[in-house]
Design brief:
This is Aminobenzoyl-glutamate transporter. By secondary structure, the chain is mainly α. The protein has 21 helices and two strands. The protein has a two-stranded antiparallel sheet with strand order 1-2.
Length: 510
C-alpha cells in the first residue's frame, strides 16, 4: 500500500489533485479552448511586445514586434479549421515514436529485448541499477530527443527484470533524458545550435565574439556526475518507496536462457556488429557518405538528421535475426504481425497526442508564449541585480518560462538577444548566460504538461499503473526537478566563485 509518511504527504496530495483533473485528452482539449479564449482577450487589449530577436532564416539579429494572433478572428478561425490534420501529422513525437516502435516492437515481440536485458541485470549489482538508467538517459540526449523513445521504456523493463517497480525505472530514465538535458559527456546535436544563436546575440555588442559548441562542455561533464548521483538518490529513497506495490508476473522473473534463445542472441549479435561496422564505414572517414557533403561535419549531417531511422534499424535488424535464430519468426508475415502489434499497443497514445498537437499548435500560433516570455525577461532586467544573484535569478526565470514554453532552442533564439547583451554589460560571458539558461530549461522539463513528449510519458505510466494520470507523473517527477535545481544552483555558484572555465576558452566573466 502507498505509504503516508510525512515526507510523502505533499507528493501524494499533488498526485491526488492532479489525477482529479479530466482525462489527459480532455485536459488538452480544455487547454486548447482556454488558449483560444485567452488569445481573444489579449487581442482585445492589443498586447504587443518588441524585442531584439534572432531571425533563423536570415541568421541575423533583428528588432521584432509581436502581437497576439486572435484565434477567434476570421483568420484565426480559418487557421484552426484548415490545420488540424497538419498539426497532428506534423507533431514531432508522432513520427519519431511510430518509426522507432516499428523496430522496438520486433525486438520486444520476439523476446530478445527481455532476454538480453534480464541477463544484463542479472550481472549488474542492484545498487547500480538506478544510476545506470539515469546515466544512460543523460547520454541519450546527445542524439537530441531519441532518449524519450528508446530509454524510457527500456528503463521500465530494466527495473522489471531486477524485480523493482517499473514506474521507478520510467522515472529514473525520464529524469536522465529530460531533467538532465544540460548534462552530457559528449557534445550533442543541440550544442552547435545553442552556440550559433549565442554568437549572433553576443555580436550585438562585440562583433568578434564567437561562442563555440564546446563552450559549456566542462560544466556539462561535471553536471553528468551530479545529475546521475542526485537522480539515483531520488529514485531509490523518495520515488520508489512512495509507489504502491507492483504485482510481478512470471514473465518478469530472470530465467535460464534456453538453447534456442542463445542461438537467437548469437545471430542478433552478429547482425548488430555487421550493422555497426556498415554505419562506421559511412560516418568515420571524413569522406563518409553519411557526413555533411560540404563540410564533412558529423554533428550536422545526414546521419544525425536521420538518426531516428538508424535507431529503428538498430532494433529491427537484430530483432529479426534473433527471431529467426530462436524460431519465433518463420516467415515475413510474422515480422509484419510483430510490427502491427507494437503499433496497436500505442493506440491510447495516438488519441492523446492528437489533442496535445492541437493545443501546442494553437498556443504557438497565438504568440501568447512569446509575449509572456518577453515580459518576464523585461521584468528581470528591471530588478537591478548583478553578478551571481542575477545569474541565479535568470536560472529561476528560465525554469518558470520553460513550464509554459518548453521548446529549448526556439526559446533560446528569442531570449539570447535579450539576455546575452544585457549580461555582457555587467561582465557575464555569453557562455555562462547560455549555461544558466540551459540549467533552468532542463529542471522543469520533467514536470511541465506542455512538453511535446508529455503525452507519451503519461501513456508509459499508464502501461504499468492503469490509474495513473497527470498528477501521478508530476508528483513522481517533482522531487527530481527540485533536487536538480538545488544541485545545479550550488554547482553553478561554486563554478562562478572559483572562476572555472565552462569549456575550452570559455570564461565565466569577461
Amino acid at each position: 500500500m502507498k505509504t503516508e509518511q510525512k515526507q510523502f504527504r505533499f507528493l501524494n496530495w499533488i498526485e491526488r489533485a492532479g489525477n482529479r483533473l479530466p482525462d489527459p485528452s480532455f485536459l488538452f482539449i480544455s487547454l486548447t479552448i482556454l488558449t483560444i479564449l485567452a488569445s481573444a482577450i489579449a487581442a482585445y487589449f492589443n498586447l504587443t511586445v518588441t524585442y531584439e530577436g534572432f531571425n533563423e532564416e536570415t541568421g541575423t539579429i533583428e528588432t521584432i514586434s509581436t502581437s497576439v494572433n486572435n484565434l477567434l478572428s476570421l483568420d484565426g478561425f480559418h487557421y484552426m479549421v484548415t490545420n488540424i490534420i497538419d498539426n497532428f501529422t506534423g507533431f514531432f513525437p508522432l513520427g519519431t515514436v511510430f518509426t522507432v516502435i516499428i523496430g522496438v516492437s520486433v525486438t520486444e515481440g520476439t523476446g530478445m529485448l527481455s532476454v538480453l536485458l534480464k541477463q544484463i541485470v542479472s550481472k549488474t549489482p542492484k545498487a547500480l541499477i538506478s544510476g545506470m538508467v539515469v546515466f544512460l538517459g543523460i547520454l541519450s540526449n546527445v542524439a537530441s530527443s531519441t532518449g524519450y523513445i528508446v530509454l524510457l521504456p527500456l528503463g521500465a523493463i530494466i527495473f522489471l527484470a531486477s524485480k523493482r517497480h517499473p514506474v521507478a525505472g520510467l522515472a529514473a530514465a525520464y529524469a536522465g533524458v529530460s531533467g538532465g538535458w544540460t548534462a552530457n559527456l559528449l557534445i550533442g546535436s543541440n550544442d552547435p545550435l545553442y552556440a550559433g544563436v549565442s554568437t549572433q546575440a553576443a555580436n550585438i555588442l562585440d562583433p568578434n565574439y564567437v561562442v563555440q559548441p564546446t563552450g559549456n562542455w566542462f560544466f556539462m561533464m561535471i553536471s553528468t556526475v551530479m545529475v546521475t548521483l542526485i537522480g539515483t538518490y531520488i529514485t531509490d529513497n523518495i520515488v520508489e518507496p512512495k509507489l504502491s506495490t507492483y504485482s510481478f508476473s512470471s514473465t518478469d522473473t530472470i530465467e535460464t536462457i534456453t538453447g534456442n534463445e542463445r542461438k537467437g542472441l548469437r545471430w542478433a549479435g552478429i547482425t548488430f556488429l555487421i550493422y555497426i561496422l556498415l554505419i562506421g564505414v559511412m560516418i568515420v572517414p571524413e569522406s563518409g557518405i553519411l557526413r555533411d557533403p560540404e563540410t564533412g561535419s558529423l554533428l550536422e549531417s545526414p546521419f544525425m538528421s536521420g538518426i531516428i531511422v538508424f535507431i529503428m534499424l538498430m532494433f529491427l535488424l537484430p530483432g529479426v535475426a534473433y527471431g529467426i535464430g530462436e524460431g519465433s519468426i518463420k516467415n515475413t508475415h510474422d515480422i509484419t504481425k510483430l510490427m502491427s502489434d507494437g503499433i496497436s499497443g500505442i493506440s491510447n497514445f495516438l488519441v492523446l497526442i492528437f489533442w496535445a498537437a492541437q493545443f501546442t499548435a494553437f498556443f504557438e500560433y497565438s504568440k501568447l508564449g512569446t509575449i509572456i516570455s518577453v515580459n518576464g525577461a523585461q521584468l528581470l532586467t528591471n530588478i537591478g541585480f548583478t553578478g551571481l544573484p542575477l545569474l541565479l535569478l535568470f536560472v529561476i526565470v528560465a525554469a518558470l518560462i520553460n513550464i509554459i514554453m518548453p521548446v529549448d532552442t526556439a526559446k533560446w533564439a528569442m531570449m539570447a538577444p535579450i539576455f546575452i547583451p544585457m549580461f555582457l554589460q555587467v561582465g557575464l560571458s555569453p557562455e555562462v548566460t547560455q549555461v544558466a539558461y540551459r540549467v533552468g530549461d532542463s529542471v522543469t522539463n520533467v514536470i511541465t504538461p506542455l512538453m511535446p513528449f508529455f503525452p507519451m510519458i503519461i501513456a508509459y505510466f499508464q502501461k504499468y499503473d492503469k490509474k495513473a494520470g497527470i498528477g501521478s507523473v508530476i508528483s513522481t517527477m517533482l522531487p527530481y526537478s527540485i533536487a536538480f535545481l538545488i544541485g545545479w544552483i550550488i554547482l553553478l555558484s561554486g563554478w562562478y566563485l572559483l572562476g572555472l572555465p565552462l569549456g575550452p576558452g570559455a570564461p565565466v566573466t569577461t
